[in-house]
User: Fold these one by one.
Assistant:
Number 1:
Amino acid sequence: MKSHVKAVVIGGGVVGCSVLYHLARAGWTDIMLIERSELTSGSSWHAAGGFHTLNGDPNVAKLQAYTVRLYKELEEVSGQSCSLHLTGGVMLADTPERMDFLRLAHAKGRYLGMDTELITPSEAKAMFPLMDESHFVGAMWDPVEGHLDPSGTTIAYSKAARKLGAEIVLRNRVTELTQQVDGTWNVVTEQGTVKAEHVVNCGGLWAREVGRMVGVELPVLAMEHMYLLTEPIPEVEAFNRDTGREIIGALDFKGEIYTRQERNGMLLGTYEKACKPWSPVNTPWNFGHELLPPDIDRIAPSLEVGFRHFPGIEKAGIKQIINGPFTFAPDGNPLVGPVQGLTNFWVACGVMAGFSQGGGVGLALSNWMVNGDPGFDVWGMDVARFGEWAGLRYTNAKVRENYSRRFSIRFPNEELPAARPAQTTPLYDVMVAQNAVMGDSWGLETPLWFAPKGTEPRDKVSFHRSNDFEHVGNEVRAVRERVGVTEIANFAKYEVAGPGAEDFLNRLMTNRMPKKGRIVLTPMLNEFGKLIGDFTIAKTGDEKFMIWGSSAAQKYHMRWFEKHQPKDGTVRIHRFDQTLVGLSIAGPKSQALLAKLVDEDVSSKAFRFMDFREMAVGGAPCMVNRITYTGDLGYEIWMQPAYQRLVYSAIKQAGEEFGLVDFGMRALLSMRLEKNFPTWFRELRPIYGPFEGSMDRFIKMEKNDFVGRAAAAKELEAGPKLRRVSLVVDALDADVMGDEPIWAKVGSDDYGTVEKPHGYGAPRFDESGTPVRGSAAAQGASAVRGIKDGDWSVVGWVTSGGYAHYVGKSMAQGYVPAALAENESAGLFEVEILGHRRPARINIEPLFDPAGEKMRG
Ligand SMILES: Cc1cc2nc3c(=O)[nH]c(=O)nc-3n(C[C@H](O)[C@H](O)[C@H](O)COP(=O)(O)OP(=O)(O)OC[C@H]3O[C@@H](n4cnc5c(N)ncnc54)[C@H](O)[C@@H]3O)c2cc1C
């Protein structure tokens, strides 16, 4: 065993081996994987080995597609077979809602390079003869699904890594991790200590224990999971004989079942409602290659449905039931990346689908370690997406919720109840008493909308406009015509102070820093010139700045700030979290309302648009920004939590004469649409350049050499390929949700290839029985897909949208090729909502207050 290496990877499951291979492939060959026992000694060895590309997050789906594509390369490099069976698979819908869900997934796939196809139950039965099609209304076919040998695949990664120079040390537990003053790690193992620049936690079932070695409680929990293997089934053998093909995989949402052929029988696994965590607090170190006792009663309800839906399987005897544990993060996606607050400590754990995701996780993490950037938009997997509130109990509740809902529909307006409330502001009970429908905003309870008195404050979950529509509309109109108040505690807030503060911010941000008492809006870029932040910054003192940003990105942004913070102590950074809360008042009467609450001149001359001032509001010391996300005349008022009730009741009292209303986040988001304001993590993400994101006016190329400037200059010189646009959509009773394809009538192949997607009666298998992928998909997920239908092509995608209540229009934002972005003609665009292509038109000037006169007051 070497005594010094560049990186130590802890854990020889599929994920650790993939990380090792990808690091070696990227050129870091002075690396070592340390495994407590033999390779695959955690959950990897007893996996069912299924893989697929579909994921609710399109960016995670892309990495899953990469994983599947990688297996051929892996077999070639390692000389080890993965026993790949690329069979294709169907997802079966038993209700119209589930069919809507599949339509959405299919539409997303259009720009992701996926060749899914919506088919009838009888078409599904032709490929999966064991089903009774009368239980289903439709299905989605995905040619990129299949199964493999989990152990063989893990070994293949390890062999490929070894060939490139990586070392693997088996039967050697890592017992301690300590960081030295020079930043290097002492990796203490049963066989001695290894010094490493970087440590990667791929501990799988023991990831929590490895995290605890460095004082971090990672939000992962193992769940028991069962699948059964049947005796041989004559129908399966007959199908194989007659068609020369294997039976495809099938996913039955109703039964929470996945099933596929295994030898000449079937394998059937469940995500049962009565799910069971395994080792909720500590994972025993002596757990190894053993299985857990099966508990057939727990999965009986799923099996009952499954046997009804798949009578061909019911007839077969059960040969074996496998029950094994594997880990989940609270939202079911992996935890990947550097841990905020530590140096060179990386994680790749909570990977619940190691054979769909392991390759993508390895690629993203190795890019991140070697190049400083994952190279993809990995927010959906970033370990920074969970805050301190995601402790053991939170994780336990959320993982159980997620597991039991794995195959349930998540509606766009659906708030999930587990582990809530986690954090509340002092106004929580006041909001609840006012019939607020509350939502979870990065662990904080936040009012979404206010239901009328006497009605139940609850969303009717739907893909269509729902019971909040009328009431959110009323809140919007009251703000636009009079004045409203809302909680904004769910923004991120930081203070950056010290003699180096201004230089530091000028180096990180694309806009010039404001003068004292003024505010600027500014994006932040990474070295590759991609958008990694969007902030409001006020200069609050000679060497002091307040920063407001996206709540969900607090750890993500702190990690970045800390990475760039000078080591000489000249810059201090503080994240307030909920030690600073806020209220926003907005609308034409908001100035008159504020004037009643303060003892100073807040007229538009004395307190201008984009001014910052500390003042007492209702008697409480506050910071006030003259700006709001409603795009109306308005203010953001920030105070310590102890003052929030005082300020709120003062606003309510003083507001009575102006007809003040409470409004929630939904109204706020509706109002930003008619102002064409983007949101962080929807419109603005690390896959877009600042000019693509149409943030031009906040990018001051001439000011100084900020991070990402050189790359941004290249983007500017070449001209952005894409542009963010606002669209008015002629929607029916459903507005866009995000990720819908944008079609354009461009009449030629200017914007990509013009092949028809797979489907439309094309054969689904080639002569060797391999599922056929459409030629568009074969090119991978390019930024602009070339799917074409007559004169229409998919040219872009929607990032978010909804109903803009004041202007009375359904609106969307999204990305289209720059050449089309200024064309406001009607009849040029369509947006696909729930399978219906609806006419859409680009809208360059905001529909509400285009000149910003109201906002300026
Ligand atoms: C019944 C079942 C069916 C499944 N079916 C599928 C499926 O069809 N498709 C799919 O994609 N996934 C499936 N999975 C999930 C899949 O098994 C996991 O996603 C995958 O195994 C995760 O791999 P890992 O490398 O993260 O963790 P693990 O496999 O748990 O590996 C972690 C490794 O780290 C080692 N380790 C931990 N701590 C230390 C230490 N301190 N020092 C040294 N070594 C250490 C352990 O010994 C272990 O070998 C299934 C899981 C189960 C249980």
Note: The CA atoms of residues 266 and 390 lie 38 Å apart.
Number 2:
Amino acid sequence: MDLRRWLTGGVDAIGEWQATFWPFERHPSLRVSDEQFASAFSTFTERLRENYPFFHPSYAGQMLKPPHPAAVVGYLTAMLVNPNNHALDGGPATARMEREAVAQLAEMFGLATHLGHLTTSGTIANLEALYVARELHPGRGVAYSAEAHYTHGRMCGVLGLEGTPVEADDAGRLDLGALDALLAGGRIGTVVATAGTTGLGAIDAVHEVLAIARSRGVRVHVDAAYGGFFTLLAGLDDPAGLDEAPWRAIAECDSVVVDPHKHGLQPYGCGAVLFRDPDVGRFYLHDSPYTYFTSDELHLGEISLECSRAGAAAAALWLTFRLLPPRPDGLGQVLAACRRAALRWAQLISDSDRLELYQRPELDIVSYFPAAGAQSLSAIDQASARMLAEGMADQADPVYLSTLRVASSDFARRHPGIKLDRDGARILRSVLMKPEAESYISQLHSRLEQLAGA
Ligand SMILES: Cc1ncc(COP(=O)(O)O)c(C=O)c1O
């Protein structure tokens, strides 16, 4: 699609709508001349060049990429109106779009019933899930894997809940034996299973966590902020296909979080939380004398902890889902390419003398380290840091990676031959979240082999 054409189309569409109202004078205090703007804009665009090239496949670092152009046009067009999805009074059109897009997310996870809404981030979405966990099991704590996102420990602190990390197994998944032993103690009210850990992309065995939790009367929340859209690959007849069991079990869990601003092609400001039981809406009950007056229909602010929220974020997601719906033949194709890229690269690394896999990728995160001379953790740590720095500093052929700090015990479980001469080490980590990675992987691999051998 032609971004310039549709950005203009958005400005025109809103202008035409505004022209249907009685004309009025814009206030002179807001006036800015094109000359003034040109000067500020030139400094602004120059400042933006300080960014790393998140759009390019040579950026193989963190979970970052620009949104789909459809999301950009949807966001900017709706932003010209600037609706607030807190209440139907603030954003009637975009609040309805939000409910439709959230229903599509619920369908993607196979939820038969749901209550859900968008949030500004995965952090806030998880906070809401843990808030409901606390209301349902007052006085009981929350368990999560030691590999879960740090937000769970932090938010337990915010909510005054006892948070208990559970050890992870050799593949970075929540250890089921340790979980069972912990739940036997009766102190835990909710378990968080992570479907795609932030560091390694490991998928906790949601189905087994669910069975253990249910046998002890414990709830299950799934943090699929990063991994959630990979459910579209569950059971797929494709090299990218994933084992169905953990993904199908999400439909039976109590809540799930997914971030459209990660793998849903959206700009930042778009997380989502969904509860299986719509009755949990009762924990959000509050009175607002200034809102909720035009309709008896449910206002999104009545079922969320946040107040003001960008209606433009819902608009962008709704428009994107019209074109690339959260189905295997829509958005699923994007995720399949990312996972195939990760699998192909893992094979190239396994065949390489210069690089070594830390562990096999489950989704699209590849973890690896320079193998040449890698006898000790300090050598690996230094070589990883050197590759990261030299890759970014190379003006002619730059490459952008990220590092992951791993504990020496975790390293030893996967690579017993390495001398543990320090507590932990940095290894390299690449999130291949752009589908273009698939056709770029040989180039990326050769570049990293060069850097590793330098
Ligand atoms: C599994 C998981 N949960 C939660 C978060 C936090 O999400 P956000 O950065 O949108 O607040 C992340 C971020 O990477 C994540 O990967």
Note: Residues 143 and 164 are 5 Å apart (CA to CA).
